[in-house]
Write a structure and sequence with these properties.
This protein has about 160 residues and is of the alpha+beta class. About 30% of the residues lie in helices and about 30% in strands. It has 4 helices and 7 strands. Helix 1 (about 5-15) crosses helix 2. The chain is globular, with a radius of gyration of 15 Å. The structure holds coenzyme A (COA).
C-alpha cells in the first residue's frame, strides 16, 4: 500500500522536468489540499490531510492539483496532467473540479486562489486565463532559465 505523497510523487515525476520529492509533497499535504483527477471519479482531499497509507489501489489518476492554505487564501503549488493525455480539455476540467470542490468545502465566504506560472508556459497561461485567473504581479528572472514568474489570482466570492 502506498502513501498519498508517493502517489503524487509518481505523478510529479511523469509531469515535471524538476519534480518535487516525496518529502516536499508530504510537507505540503500537512497544510493543504489535493485533487487527484480521474475522469468522472476525481478525489478531493483536504485538511486534516495526514499522509497515511492510501487505500485506493488503482492509482490510475491522470492529473492533480496540490494547494496550500495561506491565511485563508489558497495557493496552487503544483498542477499537472499526464503528458499522454494533454490537449484533450482535461486540464480545464481538473482546475474546474478543484475550484468547485474548494467552494463546496468552504461554503460561503470570499478568498483568493493564487498561483505562479512561468511567462513561457503558454498552455498553462491560456488555461488559467480561460478559468478566470488575472495577473496580480510578476517576478523578473525568477526561474533558472531567467524567465519571469507571473503571479495570478482568482477571487472567489460565494
Ligand atoms: C498545463 C496543463 C495542466 C494543461 O493540461 P491540458 O489537459 O493539456 O489542458 P487542456 O487540454 O484543458 O488545454 C490545453 C490545450 O488543449 C486544447 N484542447 C482542449 N480540448 C481539446 C480537445 N478535445 N482536443 C484537442 N485540443 C484540446 C485547449 O484548447 C488548449 O489549447 P490552447 O491552449 O491552444 O487553447 C498541462 O499542459 C501540464 O500538465 N503541463 C505541465 C505541468 C505544468 O506546466 N503545470 C502548470 C504549472 S503552473
Amino acid at each position: 500500500m502506498k502513501h498519498l505523497s508517493g502517489i503524487v510523487a509518481r505523478l510529479e515525476a511523469e509531469c515535471f522536468p524538476r519534480p518535487w520529492s516525496e518529502e516536499m509533497i508530504a510537507g505540503t499535504l500537512e497544510n493543504g489540499c489535493l485533487l487527484l483527477y480521474r475522469a468522472g471519479q476525481s478525489l478531493f482531499l483536504s485538511d486534516p490531510l495526514p499522509d497515511g497509507p492510501f487505500t485506493d489501489s488503482t492509482e490510475s489518476y491522470e492529473g492533480y492539483v496540490l494547494a496550500q492554505d495561506i491565511a485563508g487564501d489558497l495557493e496552487i503549488l503544483r498542477m499537472a496532467i499526464l503528458p499522454p493525455v494533454r490537449g484533450q480539455g482535461k486540464g480545464e476540467k481538473l482546475l474546474g473540479e478543484f475550484l468547485a470542490a474548494v467552494r463546496k468545502k468552504r461554503g460561503t465566504g470570499s478568498w483568493k486562489i493564487l498561483l505562479e506560472v512561468s511567462e513561457n508556459n503558454l498552455v498553462a497561461r491560456k488555461l488559467y486565463a480561460r478559468c478566470g485567473f488575472q495577473l496580480l504581479s510578476h517576478r523578473k528572472n525568477y526561474y533558472p532559465g531567467g524567465e519571469a514568474a507571473l503571479i495570478l489570482q482568482r477571487l472567489e466570492i460565494v
